Amino acid sequence: MADTITMTEEIKAETKVEEEIPDRIALTFKDQNILITGGTGFLGKVITEKFLRCLTNTKQIYMLVRPKKGKDPKHRLEEIFNSSLFEQVKQQRGLSELQKAVTVVNGDVSLPGLGISSEDRKMLCEKINIVYHAAATVRFDELLKRAVLLNTRGTKQMLELAKEMKNLKLFAHISTAYCHLEEKILGEKPYPPPADPHKIIKCVEWMDDDVVEAMTDKILGDIPNTYAFTKALSEGLVEESMPHIPSIILRPSIVIPIWKEPIPGWTDNINGPTGLLIGAGKGVIRTMHCNENGYADYVPVDIAVNAILACTWNFVYLKDYEKRVYNLTSSNEFKVSWAEIIARGRKITEKVPLNGVVWYPGGSMKKSRFIHNICVLFFHMIPAYFIDGLIFLAGYKPMI
Fold first, then answer.
1. pLDDT per residue over 331-359, tens digit each?
2. What does residue 364 show for φ and ψ, rounded to 5 degrees?
3. Is 95 exposed, middle or buried (0-12, 13-18, 19+ CB in 10 A)?
4. DSSP string for 32-73
5. How confident is the model over 98-116, as pLDDT tens digits?
6. Helices 197-206 and 154-164: crossing angle, nearest 10°?
């Protein structure tokens, strides 16, 4: 009996201590006005949801949103709130309260002046305390001109706006761990950009699209794609700003679907390994030229968002102004090989088959490019032409 009483008292004491410990992350954002660019993207949606669900003491969230496919920014925000991602927070707070907590600012990061009105610019300069610049094109095959205008010039213009903000506490630039591919070990420090970002911006601004395209390979040099190139240029611009504004660089690796909260497995795209698993699960991908023992670096999007908030706390609340670059990565502790990813995916698709399967899930990775090319011919090209032929004969448009 005495032991039971003692245990009960210990539990009560622990609960009391937990109640007395303040939520330091929440205190960091108390009464703060937040500006998010790229809020309609995968990472941006999860950041916004996290603020609305867990950081309710934030004063106001502002989202820079552009019109798209005939839909105005407010309509696009309504579509975001209709997503299953926001079901839990809508039940907690109600849709009307969420709509009041988020203010849409009409703008486009790829346009001169960010495409925002003078009134909105003045309002943002007066109110904003923390900026999360996540707007970017993440396509590896994006045209160089568009990638520069959105990723690099957009960052430059956001930094110029931030310099005008009277109460700015932090400008957080969401970069990528894969923008300095020449580095075998990525340190938490700035690296020299592959070219002068200001000159590259001026170059693509006055050149025609076809001229820029013709020069792309020469401009990129050893960098394999426009995404890595323009993100490295953007980091150079943020580094330039560090003596003038409280800015930091955040480098998440490959961001994958939600791990835990609010919906395990949620995603709104098929980028990265997700697309690979879907392709293999549907039987479309039968061979891959890859070292099966190699691995990439993955971070679940909810963990990436938690890390972003923790970095904000470290800079704003702890006032650690010396640390300006953060690598949000996992492979130092967790290494998942390509072979393991495929094996895990195969087990899942065997239990829960995907819709529209064209072939039993299988295939394998080949270290030899020659063997891989032979498999592409027999397992990708010939079956694709055969299926398209049947579709055409049936009177439909070929699709594979």
1. 888 888 888 888 888 888 888 888 888 88
2. -160, 170
3. middle
4. -EEEEESTTSHHHHHHHHHHHHH-TT-SEEEEEE--BTTB-H
5. 999 999 999 999 999 999 9
6. 120
